[in-house]
Design goal:
Blueprint lengths: L12 E2 L19 E7 L3 H18 L3 E7 L6 H7 L3 E4 L5 H11 L7 H13 L1 H57 L7 H12 L1
Amino acid sequence: MANVRANRGIVYALFEPYQRPNTQQSELKFMTELTILMPCLNEAETLETCIVKALDYLKRSGVDGEVLIADNGSTDGSQEIAKGMGARVVDVPIKGYGAALSAGIAGAKGRAMGQETKMEMIYDYLTGTQFKQRVDAIVERFEDMQDNLRKERVFIEKQWALRAKQIDLVIASTVGMHGDLQGIAGRSMPEIESLDALMIGKDDD
């Protein structure tokens, strides 16, 4: 399998030919022998060099292939450069290196990537800055969630303490009022068992 590389870490994904299974040889339909995939975001300075190298490889090797640019929203004229050099361009509106790769793979005329190229692409992604940025963003969101949870817990605990104090005051006032009435009415004042139970519950707390 060919392995084409260029400047600034642009990854070339090489695709194998597609053929319809379970058909006679005369009915086999090849979409292309090789697709060279380049994820791209504002690579106007080096894109031409990359495409020239890819096209030169296809010419020298006699392979029927294509150069496919998975553009992630370039604003520096990268798309125009690619089209002007005969490369095919796929627009990828979803930002991210992984999104550009996925869209490029889906739009390629080849059937599947070689395993070696897949490993190279994964290695480049894991050792590049974008993977670190993704992980950092996840950790930052997680820390935000933890901080918000701590704040909510403090607020709820304060509210809980306030409500408990208010309940204690209501109980104390009610029991005090009952005691005042007992002092006036004497034994003719009936016992209120629910008040006794309320005081027992408060003591248990």
